[in-house]
Amino acid sequence: MSLAFDRYVVAALLLACLLLAGRGWLREHPGYDPWAPLTLDEKPGWATPRKFLAVRTDRATCRGFLERSGIDVTALPPTGSGTCRRDDRQRLVAPQAFDVSLSPPSAEATCAVDAGMAWWLRKGIQRQAEAILGAKVVRIEQLGTYNCRRIGNGDSGSWSEHATGNAIDVSAFILANGRRIGVRRGWKGSVEESAFLHAVRDSACTAFATVLSPDYNAAHADHLHLDQAIRSGGWRACR
Questions:
Q1: Which terminus of the chain is less hemmed in, N or C, by CB atoms within 10 Å?
Q2: In Å, what is the CA distance from 198 to each residue of 20, 113, 193, 231?
Q3: How does pLDDT run across 47-68, given as a tens digit for each residue?
């Protein structure tokens, strides 16, 4: 048996060991495994935003994620017409699954918005609320999900993601102790309120395609705009 053949066998064995070790590592770190289904237990890694792109672009993938998260979804019939037709329409149920109510309560949006809310609540809002404010969030005040309009409410220009219910505007968080943290007053308010609001803004950027805050412009002075826009290349905006 030649020396060259021996070296080939050793190299092949080393490669096989590396592949097995790599597969084992990916099983323990699904956030870096683009083939592992997205779950709420996943620690975010470089593959997580890519998985959320799949959630935004494929309704079956989105519903699979919600089902694995223990969130029961009932799709609503399509409604509307033209640019504002809503084919992907359901009640937002992720907050309720995490013992958080919405105010007003009857919010309808896309599956992708519900999925984003699930991740945001589990990975961002509640962790930051307990760490910074010492209490859990029990209610989220929202300004709406659906509004058949263009961006900026003008007569021309791009249509808003609100036109198809693919967005939600969040204006305040109510804690278990009754404390209200509003975006308008809290963004530049006390140190801890400002820290909390900035932290939840940042944490939303993994699960949503667009996150706009008071730092973006005056039109967002009183709320966080979150949407699941599908863009070329899957790029995201977090401001």
A1: N
A2: 41, 20, 9, 25
A3: 999 999 999 999 999 999 999 9
